[in-house]
Amino acid sequence: MLQGSSYYRLLALLTLSLLVYSTVLRAEDNAQGVAFFEQKIRPLLVKHCYECHSLEQKKSKGGLTLDTRAGWQNGGDAGEPAIVPGSPDKSLLLKAVRHDDPDLAMPPKKPKLPPELIHDLTLWIKMGAPDPRTQSVEAKRADKTWWSLQPLKAAGPPVPAGLPPSWESNPIDRFVFAALALKGLTPSKPAGKRALLRRITYDLTGLPPTPDELDSFERDSAPDAYRKVVERLLQSPRYGERWGRHWLDVIRFGESRGYERNEIIPNAWPFRDYVIRSFNDDKPFNRFIQEHLAGDVLGPGDPDVEIGTAFLTAGPYDDVTNQDIVAQANIRATTVDDMVSATGAAFLGLTINCARCHHHKFDPIPTEDYYRIKAAFDGASHGSRVLVSKDVYEKHASARRPLEQRRDALAKEKAALEKAEPAEQSRLPEVKAALDAVNTELKKIPSLPTTWLPLFKQPQTTVVFKGGDPTKPGDPVKPASLAVLDKVTPAYELSVNAPEAERRMALARWITENNPLTARVLANRIWQHHFGTGIVDTPSDFGYLGGKPTHPELLDWLALRLIEKGWRLKDLHRDIVLSQTYQQSAEFREDASRVDKDACLLWRFPPRRLSAEEIRDTYLAVCGKLNLKMGGPGFRLYEYKQDNVATYIPLEKHGPETYRRAVYHHNARASIVDLLSDFDLPDNAFAAPRRVVTTTPLQALTQLNHAFTLDMAQALASELKRADASPAGQLNAAFRRLLQRQPSPQEHAAALALIEKHGLPAFCRALLNANELLYLD
Amino acid sequence: MNHDLLDVTRRRFFSRLGAGFAGLALADLLRADEKPWSPGTPQFAPRARQVLQIFCPGGASHMDLWDYKPELEKRDGQPLPGEENMVTFQGKNGPLMRSPWAFAPAGKSGKQISTLLPHMAAHVDEIAFLHGMTSRTNTHGPGCVFMNSCFTKEGFPTAGAWTSYALGSLNKNLPTYVAIQDTRGEPPNGKANWTNGFLPAQHQAVALAAQMPLRNLARPASISDGEEQATREFLRSLNAEHAATRPAESELVARMQAYELAARMQMAAPEVSDLSREPAAMHEHYGTGDKNPLKAAYARNCLLARRLLEQGVRYVSLYCASRASGVDGLLNWDAHKTLKADYERHGPIFDQPTAALLSDLKQRGMLKDTLVMWTTEFGRMPTRQETTQGRDHNPDGFTCWLMGAGIKGGVSSGATDEFGRRAVTNATSAYDLYATVLHLLGLDHERVTYYHNGTNRRLTDVHGHVIREVLV
């Protein structure tokens, strides 16, 4: 939205410096020209153009304003200046008023300007377009001085006055305390053990602590009791399942193709397993990113490395058969756009995709840069291919080899016999039978499985599509880095026909080597998942429309720390969760809330609701039904139907084969799966770097009435009964399992009454719906 | 608070704001209690409060239903001038093909309408036809999604979700936005047609139809009423105690209220869906007892649509036909091979029940503040396909129409060329259609925005003009 004019500031020159221009004449020196402008041109513009192209009136159709010189110099969405001084024929403005291009006839829906006015305009442009209107254009966009585009700054953690001793040792605490102190705020007391254990266990594994885990933590009075818990959780395979899921959100991982047919993708799960494995192995994240873009270059033949490139084709794409050539070109452009968007957002926090049709409206990304990045992906397309280890491949080949040799020999013999005299063909039936037999044997050896992976081939030269339209090719571009960081990160530029693998590798290096955005964006994501909100609250947009950091120096400290620790996330997790900031109580404080209602500055730990996956996993875990089998094809909470197109019908009954962690659910696009969808599992048509948290009555209906809740309530009741015959014992155990505490006397009495009148499952069903189960302090 | 902090807070606040179905947004809670859900406010005086969108998926042919082309009759069998070798979605096109149905003038306006739709002919004087519609895609799925969300890529919020976000609910025990899918199944691209996209989940459409009750609505048969009440009461006290010690967490109260709303919905939704409460004459009027089961099913959904609107559902999407099947034109209006046979199937399913719904709305005075629109994802070619007696997809010109609140009847805006190939006068698209819809709802389509992944998104993307000539 437009801001009030009081916000207008001079930034036109900075903006200018970003764009490529032909000569800008110092036209204001030309007094005669200025007089001509005032007499002829200004009135023309006011009368015929300002209605739609005036900054003053906040009208900029097609992104173009004409009431300042900077306006036409910047041009509009076409991505080039509207006027090229001295060259009327190169000036879009003139083409438009002359109606050279029917799509660009100006003024729209009105008669063409009289010839004498067009003549005046032509003359003026020939004169060099002298234009005295030098007033400023408001800076409603970022330029290269934008905060997130600067090198990382190593600021020593501050030593604020009043810092409590326990907050001294961890630099994070010093940054946070200093920011609080600036607002006159103080941190909260440490959280109690129960709250802390629930918090850290869900945070690192997405599961609740067991009653035994709570007992042992409560009993452990050693100073490093909490540190030991953190270590245990970081080493748990459950960690990768929890944090891998965060990453799958960021990179829009979905397991159906989307669009009209939305066919299910049965072989994308190896990528999901690779993500989980990489997190559990604490793979350096710079390497992980490189594998996403160029795993096939880094580890050819190594399935564990090549699989990373499935990132490129993890998004939706249109696979309908379209005979219309223009439609085909548009579909392909959109398919590649998904790869460009995902790359920009996931690794760089940049909305590069906004420069597909015109220069980015808010960030310093010219449209050419979009196509420079696109050049890296022009050779990639969606598909499947065999991806197995050399061992598996060799085993398969060696099983086939003797049979193939025998087949070839028999075929040769058969051919020879068939050519022979009839009298010499007596062996023919025998050979034929043997050949059939060997072919049957060969067929019994299953072919190697294929994996959902991009297919690469050398693309045509990449050109700019004018206005994003593939039917309007513009100048060729070279595969290259974004100019926006060229003062900070070493740029690359390859030849127009560089091998396609080289392009992806160059981009991968540029993103992961000395790129301050990559480390900042990643550190922010980690922070966000620990505290619910990032230091920048728009995790995939560090541009002008995104949020500004609440703790800029801390963000850079974290980014540098990440690099220093070899891009290993677990070290950063330790830094964060062992901080006093993280271990604070979530208790509400009226006074602090008046200054900082949402605890953006972290005067307390911000409470949160569990995610969709955590809720379902919790149900299974506390009811004793969770199957911890890792990896492999996912389970489905819908019936998949396919005619010409796919339909996903949610299941009424979830069988025991679905009792695995939700990260293993086969998440198809545009499908709705009750509990998970109700609690904001994203559709993955887009990246979901930060989930929304909503409260709806559909959640209540599902939690109360879906067979899954009833089945879980029954399962829990059986477990409780097995352990203890008395209703009092059962309900105490239930509170302990689900809420990690004892019931109050009132709760105890009410629960007992419910159990006595309506049975244990009724009580279990109620407890599974309790707010306390779903919210973390 | 400094500016940055204020910004952050504001963003967090707005990311949860919205008074839609189960909105329970923080803003509402602060003033909620037992009052009906507080609707959002229009930006200026609205002409319409509710919207009924009738959607015929498959690409319903404009020149066989609404857009009379005498030239096609004259030049049947001749090549389409200038596009003799046209290759479109399914491939090569043959010559021009006249409509299998005659057109006849109807109403005072004398509007020509296909004789395939005799009942709809009675409404032409109330309808404003948009004959110059265009789409950005020639493919059903993206086309349906575009017609509902103004983006061909799925995942963007649909018009009903935007309406819910902007205006909130008009009732206290039913959803704000309901999608009534056809008995034959979901439309192309399925649930993407009524998604909230990146808007908060309370703005999603609830899928509900005469043949399909609201999911998880009914209490399980194994649970008695007494058990249900006792369970809910125990839960309520448990939650109340928990919330009492956390007075600042309004979400906890919101969830408790959501359970109460769910209970009210369990009463209200079956009631509104209970068509047996309608008199026999009304069933007769709509055709719910028709011997064609597909027509009867659609008629029941028409009746359901009226009942939902009557109970204050803000936005109802009603589908007549479904996704594409392996056989073109069988399940929807996608008549590639046998136009005549296909539309003799689809026309009668659509005609009487839709016309009955419109008369019913009118008789009850509901058209005063209900906007009705009829949409399809694109039209069809004036030619036949090279080897068939059907027409291929045509995104370059087709018809949609508006009726009811704030709409001038008996008019036509925009036009295709003499054959129906392209929009040539006052071309419009989903952007303009929804700019108009929002305008009638008292909203400026350029000012209803929501920040998502780096952009302040709006329903009409960066386009759209209000189609003023069809407004009263």
> Major sheet of chain B: size, sense and barrel closure?
9 strands, mixed
The general outline of chain B is: globular
Tally of contiguous helical segments of chain A: 30
Largest interface: A-B, 96 and 91 residues
Q: What is the helical fraction of chain B, as a range of percent?
A: 25-40%
Number of strands of chain A: 12
Structural class of chain B: alpha/beta
Average of pLDDT of chain B: 89
Estimated radius of gyration of chain B = 23 Å
Strand content of chain A: under 5%
**Total number of β-strand segments of chain B?**
20
Helical content band of chain A: 40-55%
Mean pLDDT of chain A: 91
Query: Which stretches of chain B are poorly predicted, pLDDT < 50 over at least 5 residues?
Result: 1-39
Query: What is the strand arrangement across the widest sheet of chain A?
Result: 1-2
> Any idea what the shape of chain A is?
globular
Describe the structure.
The complex is a heterodimer of chains A (777) and B (472). Chain A has 777 residues and is mainly α. Helices cover 46% and strands 5% of the residues of chain A. Chain A is globular, with a radius of gyration of 32 Å. The two termini of chain A are 37 Å apart. By secondary structure, chain B is of the alpha/beta class. Chain B is 32% helix and 17% strand. Chain B has helices at 3-16, 26-29, 62-65, 70-74, 140-149, 159-167, 225-244, 250-273, 280-286, 293-310, 339-363, 430-440; strands spanning 50-55, 87-88, 91-96, 103-106, 111-114, 127-134, 177-180, 206-207, 315-319, 370-375, 379-380, 383-385, 393-394, 398-404, 411-413, 415-416, 423-425, 428-429, 449-452, 455-458. In chain B, strand 2 (87-88) and strand 3 (91-96) form a beta hairpin. In chain B, helix 7 (225-244) packs antiparallel against helix 8 and helix 10 (293-310) runs parallel beside helix 11. The longest helix of chain B has 25 residues, at 339-363. In chain B, 60% of the residues are buried. At the A-B interface, helix 14, strand 11, helix 25, helix 28 and helix 29 of A face helix 1, strand 2, helix 5, helix 7 and helix 8 of B.
